[in-house]
Amino acid sequence: MQQRPFTSGLKAGVPIGLGYFAVSFSLGITAKKAGLTIFQGFAASLLTNASAGEYAVFSLIAEAAPYLLVALMSVIVNARYFLMSCALAQRIRSDEKWINRLGIGMYVTDEIFGVTIARPGYVNASFVYGCAVVASPCWALGTALGIAAGNVLPLRAVSALSVALYGMFLAVIVPPSRKNKAVLAAVAVSFALSYAMARLPVVREWSGGNRTILLTILIAAAAALIRPVDDDKEEQHA
Amino acid sequence: MLKTWIYILVMFAVTYLVRVLPLLVFRKPIENRFIKSFLYYVPYVTLAVMTFPAITEATQNPIAGYAALLVGLIAAWFGANLFLTAAGCCLTVLLLELFLV
């Protein structure tokens, strides 16, 4: 018997939610450093559903950066979601309700996109909602607990947990680097220039946020010029 | 307090727009080769820039951070999933800092 899409979504959401919970705990530690209250962290994560994006913005809040920079950073760091939504848009029924388009747009994350696009046929909004109902609260709860436990946990544990987010980033960038030489080169150059900018006089006085935006635009543009992506190869999925 | 809420709203609004615009407006694939390629490379570059050297500054002792980076790179290279890679990094720091700190 065929499962209802919402139920399938709930099931797909469980492993995603577990992973989210662990990683968002580490995000909560960053949020605490930026001065967010437990409720603010919960709300921020429930609304935004973005790991790298939230991490980058929390770091900017800690630096008391201007709002415009926060907006610019949100565009850059989340640019990959733009790409995923373009891919999803091709698979949405042309007469799909507006409210469902608005709803699906809330939950275009790496993982939910992954399980949604892997299903055959048109995107089913109920499936996305089922997945989101489980995964998004896990993300928000983990963030809130990270903020709360930052006070209680020993420094040793906080130090260890604070690298979880970076571990997750590595899990995203390394496998494609292994398959694709151009991505590998882009990642290696990013590491090198990011290190250099953190050390060089004058430049190191810039905020981390400014450095991230500048390097992302420069390196990604250079890579796009030197090694444009082949039209035939569909390698959009991050 | 109010400033923090404004920050959160800006982050939410911009992130949501980035995601929802293609679903509402662009129903055709992006044709421009440069834009397509640029968007393809952005996530890898931005995550790489944010990871290093920040990971070495997140820990109490930078050596533990470098070790976590190395463990994370190796684990992900050999196909460890998101959760395992993150856990490996955390464990490395925890164990090393027993001696280093």
Summarize this structure briefly.
The complex is a heterodimer of chains A (238) and B (101). By secondary structure, chain A is an all-alpha fold. Chain A is built from twelve helices and no strands.
Largest sheet of chain A: none
Shape type of chain B: extended
Strand element count of chain B:
0
Number of E strands of chain A? 0
Which terms would index this structure?
heterodimer, A: 238 residues, mainly alpha, 12 helices, B: 101 residues
Give an overview in words:
The complex is a heterodimer of chains A (238) and B (101). With 238 residues, chain A is mainly alpha-helical. Chain A has one domain. Helix content of chain A is 76%, strand content 0%. Chain A contains twelve helices and no strands. In chain A, helix 2 packs antiparallel against helix 8, helix 10 crosses helix 11 and helix 11 packs antiparallel against helix 12. Chain A is globular, with a radius of gyration of 19 Å. The C terminus of chain A is likely disordered. With 101 residues, chain B is mainly α. Chain B has one domain. In chain B, helix 4 packs antiparallel against helix 5. The longest helix of chain B is centred in the first third of the chain and has 23 residues. Chain B is extended and about 55 Å long. Chains A and B meet through helix 1, helix 2, helix 3, helix 4 and helix 5 of A and helix 1, helix 2, helix 3, helix 4 and helix 5 of B.
